[in-house]
Amino acid sequence: MRLWHNPASPFVRKVRILLRETNLASRVEEINTPVSPVNPHAELAAKNPLVKTPALETDDSRVLYDSSVICDYLDTLHSGAKLIPGGAARWDALRLESLCDGILDAAVLCRYETAVRPEALRWNDWVNGQLTKIRNGLDALANEAPTWGNTFGIGQIGAACVCGYLDFRFADENWRSRAALAAWYESVKQRASVAATVPA
Ligand code: BEZ
Q: Measured by CB atoms within 10 angstroms of the end CB, which terminus of the chain is less buried, N or C?
């Protein structure tokens, strides 16, 4: 399999953590693919019309995107404990993954707004709207974190990617004021899959 990836992307990181948690990493060739909304990548565009990473080319030549679909697919390829559970727990896990994806969507949009968009075209109210989504989402994560125990499934992978991306791109945000979330992240930061995929 081939993973089109950018090591700075928190959505790519979800996939890379899941690959390591499930011992599938050795089956995937990672192709470093720098993309931005204004600087598309021709080779990736031929695989994914949205020109976004992550995209996964499977051994039977399917190209899968986005991170949720890729994680769902990869979780079918191993015989260990599933990171996306079945039964009623599935909906809790997928809802938590969606919450984290939404926080990351808002954070990446903010990042593009400040790092890519020319200053004269920026719209502060819009940025503040995205920051509000991030902060409300973090409050929700902090409320839930004490219930997670030792579970490290798809939802917690998403939460680790949220915390890591905020450290990487939003150092001034002080998300650690939410003590329960900060304490949880301190404990998962040590996991080999999380330590090996710190954004760069
Ligand atoms: C970043 O550099 O922050 C970034 C790169 C790719 C996707 C998302 C974010």
A: C
